[in-house]
Amino acid sequence: MANGSGRPELVLFDLGGVLCRFEPDHRAAELATAIGVAEDEVHALVFASGFDQECDLGLHSETAILERFRRLGFSGDRDDLRRAWATAFVPDRAVIALAIALRSEGVVVATLSDNGPVLLAAIESVVTPSAIDKHVFSCMLGATKPAPAAFVAALEFLDARPQQTFFVDDNPVNVLSARRLGILAEQANNAADVESALRSVDLLRAH
């Protein structure tokens, strides 16, 4: 990547908390209904148990995850599981519009998200493809934020350099970790914060 302008060439957006509002209760409710158990039981079996974290690290394929849910009583197919999983992510239309604007200016836009293969398979139903060049999920990298390995692997995957990358996340710990690697990074919790952060590094010139 090279643009010769000194501006970031790549913008990495966190998914849950930046591009989307993260509302996991919606997902728990959908899964509980599909399985026929209480939401608390879904939380205990899938999330508190550490299984979801293993999925984020790429330790289980989408097929294996579906089989696990079927053993719990889930009667749906792969598409049903994807739809249920995706309900935890509600697109922030204003931030997505900013991503589209960046791409119109020639900036590469990608996600860097701690998520597993089910959401990765469903991601275009959550975030319009016109907003994102590439999705980079922890399940592809074998590491989650804020581990330095996650950022290093993401940059390698995207063929990007730290000093020409701008990272936006709602978690200050992740932001600090990125900065320690030489990545430009800012915390943002809403669309106004995101826009301000982008303008601070000379992006969105035409908007």
SSE pattern, N- to C-terminal: EEHHHHHEHEHEHHEHEH
**How large is the share of residues in beta strands?**
5-15%
Number of strands: 7
Main beta sheet: strand number and arrangement?
5 strands, parallel
Measured as a percent range, the helix fraction is 40-55%
Whole-angstrom Rg: 17 Å
| pLDDT averaged residue by residue | 95
Q: Which residues sit in consecutive blocks of at least 5 with pLDDT less than 50? A: none
Largest sheet: spatial strand order: 5-4-1-6-7
Shape annotation: elongated
- End-to-end separation in angstroms reads 23 Å
Number of helices: 11
Secondary-structure class: alpha/beta
Structure described in brief:
The chain is 48% helix and 14% strand.
Could you explain how this protein is built, in words?
- The protein is α/β, with parallel strands linked by helices and 207 residues long.
- It is built from eleven helices and seven strands.
- A five-stranded parallel β-sheet has the order 5-4-1-6-7, with helices on both faces. A two-stranded antiparallel ribbon has the order 2-3.
- Strand 6 (165-169), helix 10 and strand 7 (184-187) form a beta-alpha-beta unit.
- Helix 1 (24-35) packs across helix 2 and helix 1 (24-35) packs antiparallel against helix 5 (78-86).
- The longest helix is centred in the first third of the chain and has 12 residues, at 24-35.
- It is elongated, with a radius of gyration of 17 Å.
- The relative contact order is 0.18.
- The model has no long low-confidence stretch (mean pLDDT 95).
